[in-house]
């Protein structure tokens, strides 16, 4: 479950960044960097991984909504 959660998150983040990069390159690049940092932190906090994944999904949806609202 832990591994599939991280794999899903990484793939969906990659798709998200690819979709956004043409219209919002700076925001997409910043978000990709932030996701990478959060992912590395989550590797250290192994027991918190599921909570991290859930929070990351929520954050990603919020970030996308914010970007769309600001366009």
From TrEMBL:
Q: At the top level of its lineage, which domain of life is listed?
A: Eukaryota
Protein known as: Uncharacterized protein
- Which species? Tetraselmis sp. GSL018
What high-level taxonomic lineage is stated for the organism? Eukaryota, Viridiplantae, Chlorophyta, core chlorophytes, Chlorodendrophyceae
